[in-house]
Structure formats: C-alpha cells, structure tokens
Amino acid sequence: MQQKNKLLALSSMIEGQEAERLRIAKDLHDSLGGLLSTVKAHFSTIRKDVPQLEQLSLSEKTNGLIDEACLEVRRISHNMMPHSLSISGLIGAVEDLGEHLNEEDYAVTVEIKSIPDTLEKTRSVMIYRLLQEIISNIRKHANAKNILIQLIGHNNTIHLLVEDDGNGFDFQEATNNGGLGLKSINSRVQFLDGTIAWDTHPGRGTSINLNIPMI
Fold first, then answer.
1. Looking at the chain, which terminus has fewer C-beta neighbours within 10 angstroms, N or C?
2. What class has domain 84-213?
3. How confident is the model over 124-178, as pLDDT tens digits?
4. What is the pTM of this model?
C-alpha cells in the first residue's frame, strides 16, 4: 500500500511538472519566439532601407545577437518539452538528445537496447529528466569532448550509463558542498527505488551508472 501511494504521488507530481513545462515551452515558442522573429524581420527591413547601417559593425553584431536569441529560445523550449518524448517515447527522446549534443560539437555515442514500448510514461519521463540533468552537469562543468550514453533494459530493470572524458571531480568534496546537482540526481533515483554509482576523479572523467526498476 505504501509503495502504491508513493507511485501515485510520484505520478501526480510528474504530471503537474510536465504540464507546467509544456505551458512554459509553448509560451516561449509562441510568444517570445514570435516576438523575436518579428524583431528580426523589422531589423532586416531597416537595414535594407538605410544602406548606411550595412557599413556599421554594430549592425552586423546586432543581427547576430537576434539570431542567437532566436536559437536560444528554441533550445530552451525544446529542453523544457522535447516533442520526441511525447511522440517517440524514451528511446526517441534519448536519440534526439544525442543528435543535439553532436550538433554542439560533442562526440556522442548512444547505445539503446531492449527498452520496452510498454514502459510506464511516468518512469520514462523521470529517466529522461535524470539524463537531462546529468548532461546539463557535463555541459556546465566537465569540459568534455566525448560522451557515451547507454540505455539497456534487462531483467525488469533499466540500466543507464553516462560517461564523459571531461575534468572529473572529487566526489566526496562535491557531495559535502552540495554542488553539481548531485543531491537532486541522487534523490530522483532514490524516489524511483533505483541505485546510482558514481566513478569520478579529478582529471579522469566521470562515469555514472544507474539501475532503475521498470515497475
């Protein structure tokens, strides 16, 4: 009964979080994204009507900043609610994440095997959010070039392995300081009755191994 109540609470929490993420992503894409596109169009018209602007380096820089802002809004919106997660499930979302990392000039290897299509949506979302948080830490702190993502189903368990060749860190020190999002990642895994093992040392990259029950 306690486990059932825990899963119901988890499901309700995730549904609420995902609904809010969807709302924010839609607002970003439709409202702010639309405004930036309009600004881009107006600025392009002004540059055509005022030839002198083309000779100013500030004009080109401004145009570039508008382009960067448009891309950043799309990136944030996608991270908040990737379409592949709702359309293709966990497998499609992880593959899509790998493609985006490759576009960011990381060398990414994604290996997926034996993940059932019947995997509960709540668990799929939680596993994907865990992976997102781990990747976010790599982006912010690791200075890595190569990333390996393995997602394997075996004996009613999801095995997720994420490795990078970045800076690595002192795990005990990071845990004591409460940094790098370790507490958040560990608590999410614990909430799913899973296990997590960290293997990292300064200058030797990081390997994170998670085991999460499918049910």
1. N
2. alpha beta
3. 888 998 998 899 899 989 999 999 999 999 999 999 999 999 999 998 888 888 7
4. 0.70
